[in-house]
Amino acid sequence: MAILQLENGTQLTDLIEITAELAPLNIKLSRWPVGENPETRALLAKDALSDAEKEQVLQDLDSYFEELQRTDGYQSRDLIVLHPEIPNLDTLLSKFKPCHTHADDEVRYIIAGEGVFGFVRPDGSQVELTVQPEEYINVPAGTEHWFYLTEGRRIKAVRYFIGKEGWTPEYTGTEIRLRPLAAVS
Ligand SMILES: [Fe+2]
């Protein structure tokens, strides 16, 4: 389950309470089951996946993509797989660590591991949301946010795109005040 950390140190784990805190940002957060397919489950437990294995996982979960295609015009999806053995992991992550926005929504479905999204709310307050397996998140275009991995440094997430051009980070220079002790990279 997702965890939301507020600046005063409060941690929320109740999805309804978290949704209420994120409401000013119009962030969508939903629980999407991965299902019971044993082959998918086995692949999700591995660190590295071949392109064929990634495609196998994506196809097993494509009913969600098809729904996004129908309702919101999404056009492509891929699977991002990060783990400690990736040689340039820190370089990859450094792009998303400072506060930034995107011209398109950032839409992710976490299927293994976890990561932390930080957000600047309209009143200037900052929160950090730890997203975990079976959680779908839509961060609207223009939302000031940042992202890093937790101590395990592992995540598998499906990324859904309307177009890939709008997904480059635009850095805002906002200082990040929230720094949980467990944060790595
Ligand atoms: Fe981002």
Structural commentary:
With 185 residues, this protein is α+β, with helices and mostly antiparallel strands. It has one domain: Jelly Rolls, CATH 2.60.120. The protein is built from 5 helices and 12 strands. The strands form 3 sheets. A 5-stranded antiparallel sheet has the order 2-1-8-7-10. The protein has a 5-stranded antiparallel sheet with strand order 3-9-6-11-4, with helices on both faces. A two-stranded antiparallel sheet has the order 5-12. α2 packs across α3. Bound molecules: fe (ii) ion. The site of fe (ii) ion has 7 residues, from β10.
Write the layout of secondary structure elements.
Elements: E1 3-6, E2 11-12, H1 15-22, E3 28-31, H2 38-45, H3 51-60, H4 62-72, E4 76-82, H5 89-94, E5 100-101, E6 106-113, E7 115-120, E8 126-131, E9 135-139, E10 145-149, E11 155-161, E12 170-171
Antiparallel strand pairs: 1-2, 1-8, 3-9, 4-11, 5-12, 6-9, 6-11, 7-8, 7-10
Helix pairs in contact: 2-3
The structure holds fe (ii) ion.
**SSE ordering:** EEHEHHHEHEEEEEEEE
Question: How many domains?
Answer: 1
Q: What's the name of the CATH homologous superfamily?
A: Jelly Rolls
Low-confidence stretches: 181-185
Query: How many beta-strand runs?
Result: 12
| Structural class by helix and strand composition | alpha+beta
Ligand set: fe (ii) ion
Average pLDDT number: 93
Give the N-to-C terminal Cα separation.
Answer: 22 Å
- Name the strands of the widest sheet in spatial order: 2-1-8-7-10
Task: Find the CATH topology.
Answer: Jelly Rolls
The largest sheet, given as strand count, sense and whether it forms a barrel, is: 5 strands, antiparallel
* CATH architecture identity: Sandwich
**What Rg is obtained from the alpha carbons, in whole angstroms?**
16 Å
Helix content: 10-25%
Beta content: 25-35%
The shape, in one word, is globular
CATH class: Mainly Beta
Total of helices: 5
